[in-house]
UniProtKB/TrEMBL annotation:
GO molecular function: kynurenine-oxoglutarate transaminase activity; pyridoxal phosphate binding
Protein name: Aminotransferase class I/classII large domain-containing protein
Positions of the Aminotransferase class I/classII large domain: 36-434
Stored CDD domains: AAT_like (cd00609)
Species of the source: Triparma columacea
GO cellular component, one term: cytoplasm
Keywords noted in UniProt: Aminotransferase, Pyridoxal phosphate, Transferase
Keyword Ligase in record: no
Signal sequence region: none
Pfam families per record: Aminotran_1_2
Similarity comment: Belongs to the class-I pyridoxal-phosphate-dependent aminotransferase family.
Cofactors that this protein relies on: pyridoxal 5'-phosphate
InterPro entries: Aminotransferase_I/II_large (IPR004839), Kynurenine-oxoglutarate_AT (IPR051326), PyrdxlP-dep_Trfase (IPR015424), PyrdxlP-dep_Trfase_major (IPR015421), PyrdxlP-dep_Trfase_small (IPR015422)
Amino acid sequence: MSSSSSSSSSSTNDLSQLSKPTVWHEFTPLANEHNAVNLGQGFPNWDPPAFVVKSMEETVNVKGTSTNQYCRPQCHLPLAQALADDYNSRPSWASAGVRVDPATNVVSSLGVTQIMYIAFRSLIKKDDEVVLLEPAFDIYAPQVLLTGGTPRFVSMKTDTEAGDTANEVFQVDWDALEATVNSKTRVLVLNSPHNPTGKIFSRTELDRLAGIVSKYPNLIVFSDEVYERIVFDPEGSPHISFATIPGMWERTLTMSSAGKTFSATGWKCGWCVGPEKIIKLMADLQQWVNFSTPTVTQDAVARSLVKARSPYEGHPNFYSWLAADYLKRRDFLMKGLEEAGLPAIVPAGGFFICAETGGLKIPDEVYMEDSISAPDPMPRDYAVARYMTHTDPKVAVIPPSPFYSKENKGEAEGYVRFCFCKTDDLLEEGVERLKGMGAKK
Ligand code: PMP
């Protein structure tokens, strides 16, 4: 994440690179081995809310019409109905004139991870290209390769002079994007709120993107919205679904899941909402992949979506409480990072913070050995993240370079990613350790 930006394509269709362990295989075990406070991998370390757990209990215990048996392959109908009600009740969807039909516009699967794979598999043909805006969540590029497409990377510009928020610092390089999208581009993946930066794309940015999409009739946008409910300033920096931009419903697959919203990442219940023609392709494919995905999980999520609309802990609904709870955690960790002398970029959504580590002096020692997932040579952000986890201050973080293609990994070298989806005790202990960190200049 330097001040530069660039675009590049991957060395195409070389699947051997997919057999390596990933950053996720490395850092949580490393944290456990060295007794580090884990502010690395982004999973909440608390239980789902009681109403969500209760939903699962209820569904498993339904007698007769059994939720314990196979369901409709496309999507368990109660989930499709709950999702349609949810999207149709959003003012921005209604005012865009978009109406989700539970029978034809919704398909579900095992998290966004699998629904995205099914979407790529349904659309990508040999020689098709997929544009990824970097940093990009690390499943996208391998999925493109697995489905026979060619990833094309456009790195966002990083301008720390522009302000201290992710929305200001991380900017789309429109020239590079325009130069990369072409008639072979079948898919562009958008992620907002964004992992790892916390950027939320503005209406102006989405309109400009829609302008590019309009020029290429074959191009479909995959909009990964898994952090849609964790938004810190809904007035100033609202989450806007790309599907609601004029003319974009027919061109967008909106993907989300229950993992982050209901603190239930292990349930792996995700969905895709979009135009009937593409949803049908995906549903047809799904029946040969899983036949159907777990009915109980879908049923429990359907119940939870209905209950989440009710007042919750003094808030008008669960989502408002969730965003307020995460805002407290974000502010606590931001303050801790500031006190520890690590300049951090304020996220507008999601549960990650990117912090600058340029000022850290990291000795060249054993912590660099035995990495199972680092590229060779080890990028600086990897070395810093390993040092922080392994030696000082024993706080696990994630290096952002896995979110970049080989050519653009240098963009990440001055940063590490912290998460704040952790309980108060863990965040407090992490901040305490960071204050005592010895590697500062
Ligand atoms: N997209 C992004 C941007 C993510 O951060 C994650 C999980 N970390 C996923 C997708 C995966 O979502 P799921 O668990 O629903 O497969």
